[in-house]
Design a protein that fits this description.
Length: about 400
Amino acid sequence: MVYEAKLKELQTLFPDARSGELLGYLQIRNGSVDEAASQYKSTRAWRTGFPSPTILDCAPFLRIPEGNSGPDGCVVCLEDMQGDCARDKRGRPIVASIGMLHGTAKEMQSQMVYATNRALLYAKEGELEAQCSVIEVVPRTGANPTFRFPDTAVRTVLDLQRHHFPGSAVASTTHFCGLPRAVTWGFALCKPFMAKETYENMLLMPNFAHLPEHIEPSSTLREWGGDLDFDLEAYVAWRAAEEGLELSQDQLPRRYDSYATPVDTAEEENPLAGVASASLKDVASKMATVSKRGSGVGMFASYKWKDKLLACTAGCLLYFASSEVSETNCVDKLIPLQGSYVEEVTDVTGPSKDHRVFCVITPARSYHFAVAEEEELRTWIEIISSEAEAAVG
């Protein structure tokens, strides 16, 4: 094992953690024990504020509308309901994505977390916790098409996976099946939102013909050309019984509407809206002008860098409408730091070649900031890390 000695060191810090889980943090942090420990601490903090999803959170998306051969979009671990699951030829649990996740960011996060947690139950002891994902791009009969370029809500799922399930992010293989060859080039646009290993482990295929190279027929769904039958309704009922939950019989299958804009609960309200930067100057752990990259989301949005006043205080990160400290420059965005992590990134170009970029990764989304000086970069990372850790309690 490449990181055997470092894994033992990390295990002394977190003796109750699974070795395969910790190995994922070492892998994504390139073997740095300190960075892996810091990221794992933020995961433990995130878990306290993100209740474990149940089958009730996923059931509306797993259920099949009357007359259809499948749901619009869902994700599910192919459990045999007898103590094991379907696996690929490398022994990794198989997670099926029928269509693409939909709903609000929080709903999609819950679905991903539930399926991933179920898959982790079948991970081999001591091995890097990863899975084999098969995504059906073409909708099943009667289902609404859900496959789309990752929007803001989808990107929160990718960020969450990379940060809190790093083994799945860096060591899993994802088979996109039924993808028109004419649009495979578009996947290059997904690269900034994925862990490097995740992007490189994607297989973009026009159909399911390649799956026998990776999965035995007994673990391949019949819809993919294999011998496995998987009843989604039976699965939902089994999980509800196992979790001691009662399903609502009048709960309708959740449909996807590409024109609808769901109310998203993932974004935190800003209780400091209207508070001036001047009034926070003396209480903030740090306040200074930085460059912030645009989200690139929205009709008139871009990835351009703009100067913003940034402050860190009371377990939160705040940025303001402009870069001045005044009575008129008010809080534009409040970012709770519980379950968040900050790191320097080198694959994002700042406003100039001399700028250093750091990224604040939260359960909801990621934010990129840039500063000109190395010392300034280290100071921001240290202070934000400290505030994030303090936010746990």
